[in-house]
Amino acid sequence: MLKTLRREDCVYTSCYCEENVWQLCSKFRSEGENLQYFNVLFISNEQRTVPLWKQRSSVGEGPVVWDYHVVLVWSGPGVEPLVFDLDSILDFPCTLQQFVRESLRSDQQLLPQFHRMVRLVPAGLFLQTFSSDRSHMKRPDGTWSATLPEYPPILTPDTNFNLDQFIQMKQDLDLGWVYSLQDFKTRFNMV
């Protein structure tokens, strides 16, 4: 059974959702959780314009349009899947059903350039392969577009930066599975 975890006990840096989720996966692993029940969700599209509701950065009831967003899903046997989204104002965690209903909603009322795709990556694979030197957060003048996390960049021996491979929504890499939002809902038995 999943151990309870409070949002305030998690490593969090605004604008670094992928690193926040990497830290969360690492925390669950260090606490002895079975990572086979965890998946990382990268939410994006070809235009990198994905609306999400119920985010800390939301203004009023409207959505925030991110270039991508990353959350963690736990789907243990016989239990409703849970979503850990450190940028959300929903419960932490909330059910996947609630996250889809309130944060993702439906693509039906959106223009095609805002339709979401989801890359589902096993958490163990994500911990093993994800690498970011944070170069995507540097402006052309060399300044940072957001305050850096207090810990060093997450790097692997193979590369300093592969975030773009996770964000692109083509099924041509060994980095999990890519779904349309509707196919993702179907995979998790949501209407």
From TrEMBL:
Pfam families: Nt_Gln_amidase. GO terms for molecular function: protein-N-terminal asparagine amidohydrolase activity; protein-N-terminal glutamine amidohydrolase activity. Coiled coil: none annotated. InterPro entries: N_Gln_amidohydro_ab_roll_sf, NTAQ1, Prot_N_Gln_amidohydro_ab_roll. Its EC number is 3.5.1.122. Keywords: Hydrolase. It catalyses: N-terminal L-glutaminyl-[protein] + H2O = N-terminal L-glutamyl-[protein] + NH4(+). Monomer. Mediates the side-chain deamidation of N-terminal glutamine residues to glutamate, an important step in N-end rule pathway of protein degradation. Conversion of the resulting N-terminal glutamine to glutamate renders the protein susceptible to arginylation, polyubiquitination and degradation as specified by the N-end rule. Does not act on substrates with internal or C-terminal glutamine and does not act on non-glutamine residues in any position. Does not deaminate acetylated N-terminal glutamine. This is Protein N-terminal glutamine amidohydrolase. The lineage of its organism: Eukaryota, Metazoa, Chordata, Craniata, Vertebrata.
